[in-house]
Amino acid sequence: MMKKTLALLLTGLLLFSLAACGGSSAGSGGSGGGTGGGAASGNPVVRIGVFEPQSGDNGAGGKQEILGMQYANYETPTVVIGGTTYNVVLDIADNQSSNDKAPSAAQTLVSNGCSIVLGSYGSGVSIAASSTFGDAGIPVVGVTCTNPAVTQGNSHYFRICFLDPFQGPVLAKFAKDEYSAKKAYCLAKQGDDYSVGLCNYFMGAFGTDNCVYETFPDGTSDYSTYVANAKTAGADVFFSPVSTEAAALIIDQAASQGLSIPLLAGDTWDSNVILNAAEGKDVNICVTTFYQEGGNPTFDNGIKQWINGNTQAKSNNGGDDKIAAVSAMGYDAYYVALEALKKAGSTDPAKVLGVLPGLTYDGVSGAIAFDEIGDAVRDVAYVKWCNPDTAEWEFIAQQGI
Questions:
Q1: What domains does the chain contain, in order, with CATH numbers?
Q2: pTM to 2 decimals?
Q3: What does the DSSP 8-state code read for residue 239?
Q4: Which tens digits make up the pLDDT trace of 345-394?
Q5: How far is the C-alpha of 241 from the C-alpha of 268, rounded, in Å?
Q6: How many CB atoms lie within 10 A of CB 38?
Q7: Which of 240, 288, 305, 330 is the most exposed, fewest CB within 10 Å of its CB?
Q8: pLDDT tens column, 80-138
Q9: Could you give the CA distance from residue 23 to residue 335 in angstroms, rounded to a whole number?
Q10: How far, in Å, are 33, 101, 320, 324 from residue 312 at the CA level?
């Protein structure tokens, strides 16, 4: 059954009143300098849950995704819902990049009375916590969780990013078109929904018989064998859409072993962690992602000024003001949540869920709309190249399949 029908049914069954919610904190684990930009005191509060990693393998990416939400909240700290002005509080729960701990973080947001939840960076934790939100009738807008399983088989999870069945073939096409690649080495983390899934979609489009595929266990810190295996296999590209923590170590090994073939990855590598790891090294890195700095100068200038004026935000951004695509996506997700609250005219999660299927919004990352499953209607990815001399991302192309 389509999400719209299920959402309308839930509207009549689930009644939560959040207008009386108090509080002025950002919940546990708040990062980046507060939840608002001087919201008036005395207004009722509406809580937007932020279900993101701030620790673990994906902690760096999660913090950057949160930054976009926090900047948007700083910029627009109130929302008019049903004729009443509400202060918007970001209630942040750290899912620790762990599938095992994700449900507990999700339950914290449920217990705190959030009207809608944003997140997560990382498909595995999104899938692991999905039923916690679903059982509570709370809608979730995924920001950069790209695995198809996030939205499949449920009526409460939506997302604003492209999916891996699109991203994988885009990367495979890029490898063939840009580098005339005939053979690919693919490396994923065991049990990781994102990297395993994206490798499978890449290999399906590239040609499985032309790929060498390996996985590494949790806790791996030495990637020398995997880089050596790619060289021995005679691969033309090295594809490894893993966490930034693992990526930095892979980059080190690629440089030290003189791996001359391009390193390709998906959206997780679009981070200044990667830029810092590659700086000064003889490596060739290309990624697909959701946003290219320069795409919206007003947003770019505003968030840079905010980051540079906020010590904690700058720290959470890796110590500089480079704009990660996930920050732009977090920014858009916040405004999608506000649009849903305004359209619902209520802080009741069931009513917010009811309006999401038909919601549209023009964000800095592009036009946002949902299909019948709740996935974003997107058909273009940005391809960027890491310049190791300047430690900057350089735009290559917008690419579809």
A1: 3-162+295-369 (3.40.50.2300), 164-289+381-399 (3.40.50.2300)
A2: 0.87
A3: E
A4: 999 999 999 999 999 999 999 999 999 999 999 888 999 999 999 999 99
A5: 7
A6: 9
A7: 305
A8: 999 999 999 999 999 999 999 999 999 999 999 999 999 999 999 999 999 999 999 99
A9: 21
A10: 6, 25, 11, 16
